[in-house]
Amino acid sequence: MSLRRRVLPLFAMVLVFGLVVPAVHAQGKARADSVPLGLPAPANFTAVPAKGGVQLHWDVVRNATGYWLYRGPSASSPDTLIGNLPRGDANSFYDKGQTLAGMYRVAAVSGAGTLGARASVAYVPPVTKFDVPVRKRP
C-alpha cells in the first residue's frame, strides 16, 4: 500500500473530526455570551403562543445555510439546543408541547458551519381564565 493511500484517509479523518467535534460540542449547552462569528443575528425574532406549543419566527439571514434554535428557562441560564434547521431559507419553528415561560434564541449557521450572533426573545404564555384562581366572597 502506498504512502498516499495510507495518509489520505488519515488526513480526511483529521479534517472531518476538526469540523464535526466543535459543532457537536456546541449542540450540548450554549451560553448567551458566546462570541458571534461572521453572520448577524436574525432580525424580528418573535415567539407567539400556538395550539399546544410556541411558534417562533425570524427574518432570513443572507448567506445562512441553516439555523440553530435554543431554549432556556431564563436569560442568564444555559440554553438547550431544541432545533437544527438545515435550510438557509427557513424562518420559523414550532416548539410542540412547550407551554412554560422561557427564553428562546436563534443563530444562523454559515456554510463553514460557524454560528453567527444569536437573537433572543422572551416567551410568556398568555393568562387565561383557567390560570387565575377565583375566590368566593364570604
Unreliable residue stretches: 10-37
Instruction: Give a count of the beta strands, DSSP E runs of length 2 or more.
Output: 8
Q: Mind telling me the C-alpha Rg?
A: 20 Å
CATH class bucket of the domain at 30-123: Mainly Beta
| Residue-averaged pLDDT | 78
How many DSSP H or I helices?
Answer: 1
The quaternary state of the protein chains shown equals single chain
The helix-and-strand class reads: alpha+beta
Largest pleated sheet: 5 strands, antiparallel
Strand line-up in the sheet with most strands:
1-5-4-7-8
The general outline is: elongated
CATH architectural arrangement of the domain at 30-123: Sandwich
What is the CATH superfamily classification of the domain at 30-123?
Immunoglobulins
Q: If you consult CATH, what is the topology of the domain at 30-123?
A: Immunoglobulin-like
What separation lies between the terminal Cα atoms? 93 Å
Strand content: 25-35%
Helix and strand succession?
A: HEEEEEEEE
Percent helix range: 10-25%
Structure write-up:
There is one protein chain. By secondary structure, this protein is an alpha+beta fold. It has a domain at 30-123: Sandwich (Immunoglobulin-like), CATH 2.60.40. It is built from 1 helix and 8 strands. The longest helix is centred in the first third of the chain and has 26 residues, at 3-28. It is elongated, with a radius of gyration of 20 Å. The chain starts with a helix and ends in a 15-residue tail after the last strand.
What is the compact description of this entry?
The protein has 138 residues and is of the alpha+beta class. It has one helix at 3-28; strands at residues 29-30, 46-50, 53-57, 66-72, 79-85, 92-96, 102-109, 115-123. It starts with a helix and ends in a 15-residue tail after the last strand.
